[in-house]
Amino acid sequence: MNQPGHVFDWLQAWYLSQCDGDWEHSWGVTIDTLDNPGWTVKINLQETDLAGREFPRLQTTRSEHDWVMVWTSQEVFQIACGPGNLSEALALFREWAASSGEPKLR
């Protein structure tokens, strides 16, 4: 099981590793809220080692507030998830970024 702080520490390190004086001015990571309620995350992959990799839509709905959806579109890793699923969804990005395969929802 991932502890919430660990995936955020990893994301911070991943973001910093992309910053080269140019990338962070054009691309980046956006975390926002949804009104249903939930989270949305957009992680731009352009000019990173992950550029060009595809992630087909993966979705699970366990309940009204317990759901995760992840996919890539136009070199952006996209996340939409329930209000308590942000760490789980970011862990999917971390798993995908660190491997050549697709992570699995648990």
Q: Quick one: biggest sheet?
A: 5 strands, antiparallel
Oligomer: single chain
Average pLDDT confidence is 90
Share in β-strands: 25-35%
Tally of separate helices: 3
What gap, in angstroms, lies between the N and C termini? 10 Å
Question: Order of SSEs, N→C?
Answer: HHEEEEEH
Number of domains as seen in the coordinates: 1
Low-confidence stretches: none
What is the strand tally?
5
Structural class based on helices, strands and sheet pairing: alpha+beta
Overall outline: globular
Strand order of the largest sheet: 1-2-5-4-3
- Helix percentage range: 25-40%
Radius of gyration: 13 Å
Molecular structure report:
It is a single chain. The chain is an alpha+beta fold. The chain has one domain (4-98). It contains three helices and five strands; from the N terminus they run ααβββββα. Strands 1-2-5-4-3 form a five-stranded antiparallel sheet, with helices on one face. A hairpin with a 2-residue loop joins β3 and β4. The longest helix is centred in the N-terminal third of the chain and has 15 residues, at 4-18. The protein is globular. It starts with a helix and ends in an 8-residue tail after the last helix.
Features:
globular, alpha+beta
Brief description of this entry?
The protein is an alpha+beta fold and 106 residues long.
Give the helices and strands, then pairings.
Layout lengths: L3 H15 L4 H4 L2 E6 L3 E7 L13 E6 L2 E8 L2 E6 L4 H13 L8
Antiparallel strand pairs: 1-2, 2-5, 3-4, 4-5
Helix pairs in contact: 1-3
